[in-house]
Structure prediction request, 606 residues.
Amino acid sequence: MSGQKIPFPGRRARMSARLFRGYHPHTARYGAVLILAMALFALALSWRPAIAPIPVPSPSSFPAEQVARGAVLAKLGDCAVCHTAEGGRPLAGARALATPFGTLYSDNLTPDPDTGIGHWSAAAFRRAMKDGISRSGAHLYPALPYEHFTHVTDADLDAIYAFLMTRRPVHQEAPANKLIPPLGFRPLLAGWKMFFLHKGAVPVDPGRSTEWNRGAYLVEGLGHCGGCHTPRNLAGGEEGARAYHGGVAEGWHAPALDASNPAARAWTPDALYTYLRTGISPDHGAAAGPMGPVVESLASVPESDVRAIATYIASRMAGRDIGSPAPAPLDNEVAAAKRFPEGATLFAGACAGCHGPGAPMMGQGRPSLGLVSNLRDDDPTSAIQAILQGIEPPIGGRGPKMPGFADSLTDGQVAAVIAYARARYTDRPDWSKLEQTVRKARKERAQP
Amino acid sequence: MTIRINVNGAEHVVDAEPDTPLLYVLRGDLRLNGAKYGCGLGQCGACTVQLDGKAIFSCVTPLAAVGTRKVRTIEGLGSVDRMNALQSAFAAEQAAQCGYCSAGMIMRAQALLDAIPQPDEAQIRRHMQTNLCRCGTHMRILRAVLRAAGLPVDGHSA
Prediction:
């Protein structure tokens, strides 16, 4: 066959010609027709109808009780975290979300008729949350964790809808997404959903308590904890077989919430409750990075829901020996200084003022570094980010605050100080390739 | 031990332990008393100076971390007789009450203006967040930074 039959000019034509070389002259044509037919068939399968727009409902048409319930559920789902731009109006969207596939901008969830969800019916909202389909029929990107939200009951979704539709409308268009081609082509998402969207309710385990089952419902559904704490495959789907084995969140490492959790002292439901409610557990450390906004949300929801979440997560970490006496935190000061003298010097000048024995902060019930989980994790990323970015108190300026050292310590110095801290405060093996990991963490920090 | 350090363009040799906070060396050894000791824990920003143009807390920056990088303090910006644009703007806006935070505020704001000559108000607020003023002159500080950047300063007073 010759190249001129293929309607692509230049290099592409030559490549196409190579592709079909050796086949019967008609094969190329039939092949092209077949591929086109399959593509059209797939496109037809991925097609979803629009749901008719409704007149913007009056806020007074929603019962106050339902709106109040929706407000709590929206907190449990952390809607405002992704759907609020930095310094922007709550829930008005346009926040840049960096993903391995490009940058997405969150949608406006206020009932603005032009740029928000003003014309969305409750059915359209339910479909978006459960199937990841916009009112227009377009597939939504799984940055909206519909593979979790699909488990939420219709009554709860309707309450969230009532809450959103009674917010003050904000006119704000989200910038266009910047994705790696061809991912801007939304019908492809239908294929993604075939693998990763598993609909249906969270199964009730009659052998467990009501509290545990409530926790399972919240964690697997609205809370979408697995979104960060479960590793993802190359297609960006959660690896179900390794649920809660630790994942990635905005350049931080989300620690494992299964039996491989690295904490020095096992997490109990009480410790988890304290951590989730206040942002700090005296036996484990402080909420940092993307966990801060989660704690901020959980600080204001009913106590029983946070206890339920704690009970369920603690059970997922089971397999560790919770009954053993709490070990005293390690402090191998002399040995660590011998192995990492530069790190020891930097630690003395930069860290010991707060973390050293007898420092004022240690008198406030803050955990010794010997108990801080990040230092014990196999992955140093979160310990590095805490040093680079610091820790902001999650709830209204209260709680632990650590300054960031990104501008005062070089990559090599961060690596030195962290190698020292690991050797001094844990019995874990040295981290390898630390300086490269610091460089990478710094780069991810600079992303939107 | 003796350690070399570059401050405001001049090389100094100081006799200090490598884990000594930079702030102590600046104030104690070099008699540069602009940067202040506030909390000593990197929480208030009174000790802010610049390291290679970036604002840092000198109270939690060990001398060993400085190396060959260049330190710049408020004394390196201008003098009472020859203030730089930002210092003049602080004076014009009366952006101080007790003045304890001023050197740190100015060094942090200058780092922003050097990187972004005309920042918007949101950028200034975000950038200045780490520095505290117990007298409550934040709005004046904000106006001083806007003024130094040549941006319109609105009339609201504080």
Notes: Strands of chain B lie at 2-7, 10-15, 48-51, 54-57, 70-72.
